[in-house]
Write a structure and sequence with these properties.
Helix content is 48%, strand content 14%. By secondary structure, it is α+β, with helices and mostly antiparallel strands. Helix 3 runs antiparallel to helix 4 and helix 4 runs antiparallel to helix 5. The protein is elongated, with a radius of gyration of 34 Å. The structure holds copper (II) ion. Copper (II) ion (CU) binds next to loops.
Length: 407
């Protein structure tokens, strides 16, 4: 069989396949129309369905395959007629590389300008500013390196495309270049790592201001909820023991410890602005991650182990609503570790308020100690009025409690 005949046979076969495919599609379409006519179902706009995109993708593949085949036919025809090659694929590849660079760099610019606005608002905590500064320095450095290396990579592929006027130069090794591209990144990374280390150290090991002592809040994670415990008037979150966990004592609080008697439970986290907050974090079942994105706070909560984090909120919820121009703005804390199928439910609101609002809110929160728990721990059923820590020793009620504890 001659080449020309082979090509035409092949083209007819390909055409037949395409025709069959289109015929089938139209048969499908007819069937679908008939079906829709029978019972009208509102499927929403067509572009919202996954099948639409799957079909569009298949159609694109088919289109590319047809173009590919047509080009092949064109080339084979030229070859059969002993004509020089019609398409210089080296040039096509080189131009595609250059196009990819331009489109890619525009994509980077677009990402930074359009999605750049979607990142978190400014840090709402003292140490958060340092974290953001570190993040920005790293981002600027890596962006410069990213753009430079990609211009070189795609630029070389375009500029040094194959031509029979030039021969490749064999250049296997250069010690100076090796030294430069080893030492420069090593130095930059050393500076970045040291900066990270020193920033982290300044966040964790800071000297406590005796005039502005932190308020303690305990957060316990479990699948799939958070329990918040405030220290109460004494400022101390009392001890827990997992062996005491039962249906009425979900956290296993040890009420033999007098520091627990005024501990309060809360459904949301309310914290005063410009006052340090000491978080006491632990977990009842698996490892979760306590995450407060706006305050740049994240720490694992680990069963059998307590972790701590101290931070100072600097922007109230109301101020942030104004700054972000979003009246629905809410601070959140959430779980940042896939801990099971209900993981997505693990989030609670954080409200940053003035100290006066905080104190008023705290008064409304119930104590963990209920009458049932008083009975279980042999404590007098008359509730103990929360009192300042200095006055606690003088309170008759506490004396009664201590007596009860001794018994
Ligand atoms: Cu989780």
């Amino acid at each position: 069989m001659s080449l020309r005949k082979f090509i035409s046979n092949k083209s007819i076969a390909a055409l037949a396949v395409i025709m069959t495919a289109f015929a089938n599609t139209s048969a499908f379409a007819q069937a679908a129309v008939a079906e829709t006519a029978k019972k009208p179902v509102d499927m929403g706009p067509v572009y919202k369905s996954a099948i639409f995109y799957a079909l569009a993708f298949l159609l694109l593949c088919l289109f590319i395959a047809i173009i590919g085949k047509a080009l092949k036919v064109y080339e084979l025809t030229r070859e059969a007629q002993d004509k020089p090659k019609g398409i210089n694929w080296n040039t096509v590849n080189a131009v595609l590389f250059a196009l990819f660079l331009i489109v890619g760099l525009y994509g980077v610019y677009w990402e930074y300008t359009v999605h750049g606005n979607m990142i978190l608002p400014e840090a709402a905590s003292e140490h958060g500013k340092k974290i953001d500064q570190m993040f920005n320095i790293t981002l600027i450095l890596t962006t410069i390196v990213f753009i430079a290396t990609h211009i070189l990579l795609f630029g070389f592929a375009y500029y040094y495309k194959y031509t029979n006027k030039r021969k490749a130069y064999y250049y296997p090794h250069n010690n100076t270049i090796e030294r430069v591209w080893t030492i420069v990144p090593a130095l930059v990374l050393t500076v970045l790592v040291l900066m990270g280390f020193l920033t982290w150290r300044s966040i964790f090991y800071k000297i406590e201001d005796p005039n502005n002592k932190p308020i303690s809040i305990e957060v316990t994670s479990s699948q799939f909820a958070w329990a918040i415990r405030y220290a109460g008037a004494d400022g101390v979150v009392g001890t827990k023991n997992f062996k005491l966990i039962n249906s009425i004592n979900a956290l296993g609080i040890d009420f033999k410890d007098k520091n627990t008697l005024d501990d309060q439970s809360a459904d949301e986290m309310v914290i005063p602005v410009n006052k340090p907050v000491r978080l006491i974090l632990n977990s009842k079942d698996v490892i979760h991650s306590f995450f407060m994105p706006h305050f740049r706070v994240q720490l694992n909560t680990v069963p059998g182990m307590t972790s701590y984090f101290e931070f100072t909120p600097t922007i109230t919820t109301e101020e942030m609503k104004a700054k972000t121009n979003d009246p629905t703005f809410k601070y959140l804390f959430l779980c940042n570790k896939i801990c099971g199928d209900g993981h997505y439910k693990m989030q609670k609101e954080v409200k940053v308020v003035s100290i006066a609002e905080y104190e008023a809110w705290l008064k409304e929160q119930p104590t963990y100690l209920t009458d049932d728990l008083r009975k279980e721990f042999n404590l007098p059923v008359t509730p103990v009025a929360p009192a300042p820590v200095d006055a606690v020793a003088d309170t008759a009620a506490v004396k009664t409690n201590q007596l009860a504890l001794k018994n």
